[in-house]
Amino acid sequence: MTQNYTYHIGSPGVPWTQADKALWLHQQIIKRSYHNEVVVHIEAMQGPFNVEQYGVLEYADGPYPLYAITNKQLDNDKPTVLITGGVHGYETSGVQGALRFAMRHASEYEAEFNLIIAPCISPWGYETINRWNPMAIDPNRSFVPQSESPEAAQIMAFVSKLGLPVHAHIDLHETTDTDNSEFRPALCARDGKAQDIWQIPDGFYTVGDTQNPQDAFQRAVVSSVEKVTHIALPDEEGKLIGSPMIQHGVIHYALKDLGLCAGFTNAEYTTTTEVYPDSANATPEECILAQVAAVTGALDYLREQQ
């Protein structure tokens, strides 16, 4: 079902002008600290791991340095695993889950894998609790050549510069109630196009690649997370957020066609996690642990395949 949402900026059915985007940006405010909640923990990883600033976002509220955590020594003979969080900055458990994995579990896997962990790709979005960047661009639809999103462009350039083929990419996300209350109405207004109404799933699920689904890999991720929190059930049409549920807790998207983060590396194994932080049956800590379980479940599966 589609709907023309009402939104307080712009005219219905008419894409936003630059003035509309400027008004939207003017209304965004800083609500939390990227430095205090993210950067200090990344910097604490220096020593056991390598911490590299791979870029910077020169925004009015910034600048925002961008960081990645990697093994001290990257080895061409090891499979490389990329773990990304905060592509949508407002999705808190993705950021904190990537950090928690790095701080408490990465050392358990560094002997077997090259780990590249980018905990917060969109720090301005983290601070303003936003899906978009200041230009009203969705970074997670921007992993394309000549990307207009510096968030997407800079992590893609960094991974390319490392010169290591990525074996697996785990991209950590959330699906929230604000997807329907704020972000989809804003998308409808920005583009002047009606948007589908989604029933927000209560629980965890993953998004596999339509062209490369890797069903057993997705199943391993879901099975690991199921030990920590509940898995989303399909709606009355057998779907999650408008897409058919392929197996327990799994849907598919065409990752590359949509310009999604998990599709940019050509990795053999990819998954996008989706945690539901607004559930009455999950705490913020449980959501972080679910993201960690997704990463460890994926790595344990890959370990078994070697």
Task: Give a verbal description of the structure.
With 306 residues, the protein is of the alpha/beta class. The chain has one domain (12-305): Zn peptidases (Aminopeptidase). Helices cover 32% and strands 19% of the residues. The protein has 8 helices and 12 strands. The chain has helices at 18-26, 34-43, 92-104, 123-128, 150-162, 178-191, 215-225, 284-305, and strands at 2-3, 50-57, 64-70, 80-85, 114-118, 166-174, 195-196, 205-209, 239-240, 243-244, 250-253, 269-275. An 8-stranded mixed beta sheet has the order 2-3-5-4-6-12-8-11, sandwiched between helices. Strands 1-7 form a two-stranded antiparallel sheet. Strand 9 (239-240) and strand 10 form a beta hairpin. The termini are far apart. It holds the Pfam family AstE_AspA_cat. This is Peptidase M14 domain-containing protein. The active site is at 274 (proton donor/acceptor).
Notable characteristics:
306 residues, alpha/beta, 8-stranded mixed beta sheet, Aminopeptidase, 19% strand
Specify the CATH class. Answer: Alpha Beta
From the alpha-carbon coordinates, what is the Rg to the nearest angstrom? 18 Å
Low-confidence stretches: none
Distance between the termini: 44 Å
And the CATH topology? Aminopeptidase
- Total strand segments: 12
Q: What is the string of helix and strand elements?
A: EHHEEEHEHHEHEEHEEEEH
Task: Estimate the helix proportion, in percent.
Answer: 25-40%
Q: Strand pairing plus helix content: what structural class?
A: alpha/beta
Largest sheet: 8 strands, mixed
The oligomeric state of the chains shown is single chain
Q: How much beta, percentage-wise?
A: 15-25%
- The appropriate CATH architecture is 3-Layer(aba) Sandwich
